[in-house]
Write a structure and sequence with these properties.
It is a single chain. With 257 residues, this protein is of the alpha/beta class. The protein has a single domain (3-254), classed as Alpha-Beta Barrel (TIM Barrel), CATH 3.20.20.140. It has 9 helices and 8 strands. It has helices at residues 19-28, 41-53, 73-83, 104-121, 133-142, 157-165, 182-190, 220-231, 235-249, and strands at 3-8, 31-37, 57-61, 88-97, 125-130, 148-150, 169-172, 196-198. The chain has an 8-stranded parallel sheet.
Length: 257
């Protein structure tokens, strides 16, 4: 099974004691590629550095909605410089978080700045969205965004349908394995094959049966297996489909990186 982890935070402090061992376990578990995602300038720079050091690691750079108040013009120029590197394959994670983030107008403004950067550089956008799907979808439509990954999707089937109709990818992770996550399981059954991605969001959102531990990319196989059961297909089908989708969306088939 060849798997692609479309979203994790490999630079996180939780991996400092054993990052190389984490990567080795992921490869042994069949993970052939991963996108490590920035949340501010410093973590984006670390993600970029990790991608430069490892052939199977790629980076996304951005300021997370939680940190939107930090994203002034100088910050966006720093991200623009980093995003010009061939191992940087997306702008993210950006978006809106109306549950926990700062002032909503600031978040909307910073989200638009990231969309401008992605449009200028012809890169996909990795979107974080919590309690803000109406605004997120309106802003994406305003910018005519096409290459969009809805990261750790937490919306309804109806919202997923709106995303799919707009051409966006739906990325699912550990919550699809939780018995309480009925809505996410329904989404996993619904999403068309060509729109589906897998992610761990490591070190958080650990799938069953590992909940309570630090998440890591080796656990992606558990997510693939659960989605396969929900869709009534072989896990190898989920792995092959989602890996091909990741390579297409991040344009890795063109030899980027």
């Amino acid at each position: 099974m060849a798997l692609f982890d479309s979203h994790l935070h490999l630079d996180d402090d939780a991996f400092d004691p054993d990052r190389e061992e984490v990567l080795a376990r992921a490869r042994a578990a069949g993970v052939v590629g991963m996108v490590t995602v920035g949340s501010d300038v410093m973590s984006s720079a670390r993600a970029h550095a990790l991608a430069e050091r490892h052939q199977d690691v790629y980076a996304a750079v951005a300021v997370h909605p939680y940190e939107a108040a930090q994203a002034g013009p100088e910050t966006m120029e720093e991200l623009r410089t980093m995003a010009g590197h061939p191992k940087v394959v997306a702008i993210g994670e950006t978006g809106l978080d109306f549950m926990r983030g700062p002032d909503r107008d600031i978040q909307r403004d910073v989200f638009r700045r990231h969309l401008r950067l992605a449009a200028d550089l012809d890169l996909p956008v990795v979107v974080h969205c919590r309690e803000a799907f109406g605004d997120v979808l309106d802003i994406l439509r305003e910018w005519n965004a096409r290459r969009v990954v809805m990261h750790a999707f937490s919306g309804s089937v109806e919202t997923a349908r709106r995303c799919v109709d707009a051409g966006y990818a739906i990325s699912l992770g550990g919550p699809v394995t939780y018995t309480s996550a009925r809505q996410t399981r329904d989404v996993a059954r619904f999403v068309p094959p060509e729109a589906l991605l897998l992610e761990t969001d490591a070190p958080v959102l650990t799938p069953e049966p590992y909940r309570g531990r630090r998440n890591e990319p080796a656990y992606l196989a558990r997510i693939a297996e659960r989605i396969a059961v929900l869709r009534g297909v072989d896990p190898d089908v989920i792995a092959a489909t989602t890996t091909a989708n990741a390579r297409r969306i991040f344009r890795l088939e063109e030899g980027r990186g």
